[in-house]
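note to self: dont lose this again. the chain is below, predicted strucutre after it. 409 aa total, dont forget to put it in the shared folder this time
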Amino acid sequence: MRATRKSLALTLGVATMLAVAACAPSSSGGDSASAGTGSSQGASQGGEPINVGIITSTTGPLAAYGKTFTEGFEAGLDYATDGTGEVNGRELKVTFEDDGGDTDRAVTLARDLIGQGYTILGGTASSGIALSLAEQAEQNKVLYVSGPAATDALTGINDYTFRSGRQSLQDVATAGSFADVKGQQVLVFAQDNAFGQGNLAAVQAVLGGQGAEVTSVMVPEDVTEFTPFAAQVLQARPTMVFVAWAGATSGAMWQALDQQGVLDDVTVVTGLGDASTYNAYGAASEKIDFLNHYFPGAADNEINAAMIDHVEKAGGTPDLFTPDGFTAAQMIVRAVEKAGGADDVDAMITALEGWSFDGPKGSYTIRAGDHALIQPMFQARLVSDGNGGWKPELVSTATADDVAPPEAG
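---
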C-alpha cells in the first residue's frame, strides 16, 4: 500500500521555494522520451482490451472545456499509439462519462467504473470534482489523471493522482512576470469556488512572497449581476487586479468591470481563456495583460501541429484545454505500456513519476516527488483579427522551470 502524501501547503515563502524547485525538477523513476510510446515500441502481447474511464463535463457550465479536453484526448491517443489505439497489442477501450459539473454525479460515475474493474480514470475541468475523484482514486487504489482542473491542492494530494494540465501556481508565477509587485496592492477578483480560492491562495503565496499586499473580492458562483462586485474593486483602489474566472459567465463579468471603469484605472492581469472569450473584452482587450496556458499559435512544434491537424480533421477546433486531453492520453499510454497492462497500479505510477516527454506545449516533466506537471507557459495579447473581432498573439514563452510550482509537502 502506498502512503498518502500531504495536501499542498502554501506559505508566504513560496516564491523562494519556487526558484529552488525550478532549478532541479526531479527526474528519478523515469526516462526522457518523446510522446509516441505506443504499440510500436512494445512486443505485441495481445489480450483483452484495457478499460479507461474519462469523466468530464459535456453538459453544464464547463461543457465547452470538456469537449475540447475530449477532442484532445482522442488526438493524443491516436498520436501516442501510432494510430492503432492499442498498447502492446491490447486495445485501449475508452468510456467517456458526463459529470455535468456535479460532484456527486462524478463520484457515482467513478465508483461505478471502479466497480466494473476499471483501474484507470481521467478527466474533469472542475477543481472541486477533481479533488473528489482524487479521493476515490486513493480509496480504491486506481490511477487518476486529472484534466484542466487547476487547483493546486491536487498536486501531492496522494500517490494515485497525476495532472495533465497546469495548476494555479503556474498561472500566478506567469502573472508575476509582467511587473514588479513589491509594495503594490494586488487584488484577486475570482469566483468563490475551489478554482477561485486556489488562485487566491497562489497569489498570496507567490506575489505576497514577492512583497505585494494581497486582498480579494470573491464572487458567489450563482451570481449573474456583477456590477456591485466591480464597484468593490474600484473602492479598494488596488494597483493591480488579478482576475481568475472560468465558465459561461465570463463575458458578463468582463462587461461589468469595463463599465465600472476598472480596466481604465487599474492594471489588470488575467488568464486568456478559451476562444469563446476572445471577443468578450471588446475594445478593452488592449488594456489587459494576458497570461496563457495554451492557444493554437502559442507553440511551434511537430506535436502541436499533429494535435491541431487531428482535431480539425475530426471537425473540432483546438482550444485552451485541448493539450490537457492530449497529454492525459500520452500519460495513460505510457503507464500501460511500461506496466505491461493496467492490473499493477503501482507499476503504472512508477512509470509516470519523473517521466520527461514532448507534448503540444513543448517539453514536460512529471515531478516524481509530488506529480506536478512542469511545463512552459505563455504571455499573450489580443489583437484585431481584421474582421471586427480579436485573436491571440504570442508575446513570450515562460520556461517550464521559471514557472514551476514549489514541491508540495
